Amino acid sequence: MKKQLFALVVILAIPALSLAQTADEIIDKHIATLGGTDKINAIKTAEYEQKMSIQGMDLTAKTSIIVGKASRSDISVMGQQITSVVDGDKGWAINPMQGGSEPQEMTPDMVKMQKNNTEPTGLQLAYAKLHKDPYELTGKEKQAGKDVYALKVTKPDGVYTYYIDANNYQLVASKASVTVQGVQTEGSAVYRDYKQVDGLMLPYTIDVSGAGMPGTVTSTVTKLTLNGTVDPAIFAMPKQ
């Protein structure tokens, strides 16, 4: 009887054991899929050229990054240019679509949120571990028909959940809950069309949606340069 009971316990435990990967193990496999820690740490700058579409409207964008320090994004739409910059603990923006042609300083909350843009797209979870942000595995679920692991990361500006493909350990989606000027805002992104760049596997197409947005924005990278020369002067706020 004892042998039968032990056998039953073992059989029942097998499904649980098969899912018993830890958050660290999943993130380590994810980092290996990306190209490895050394490759990630070797990225000092990144420059993206992108085409974007939203509700049938086409836009172009250029983003320049000094990893972990500064980011500048210039989006061209309807003959206007929207600029958003974060540099260290400060940031500024110009948005003529909202009636402003002069640079405006960002609030501290906006700077915290924009700091995420100083990391190359697709590497967020890897950087979370490298920076020792608190993280945990919250479960296994379905995303777009795929089995994925859900990992929650707590950052200074809010809580992020990253969904990692249980088969190939690529990042397939993320969602965020951040607080800006006392208002909680949520957003999500889907990552696809992975390509190899300098030994790293990175997503080239991202679908972004969120509160206050008129629809889903699809952004496709047309050119990506890693470790090129980025002039720090482009992050300086223009004098008025």
From TrEMBL:
<feature type="signal peptide">
    <location>
        <begin position="1"/>
        <end position="22"/>
    </location>
</feature>
<protein>
    <submittedName>
        <fullName>DUF4292 domain-containing protein</fullName>
    </submittedName>
</protein>
<keyword id="KW-0732">Signal</keyword>
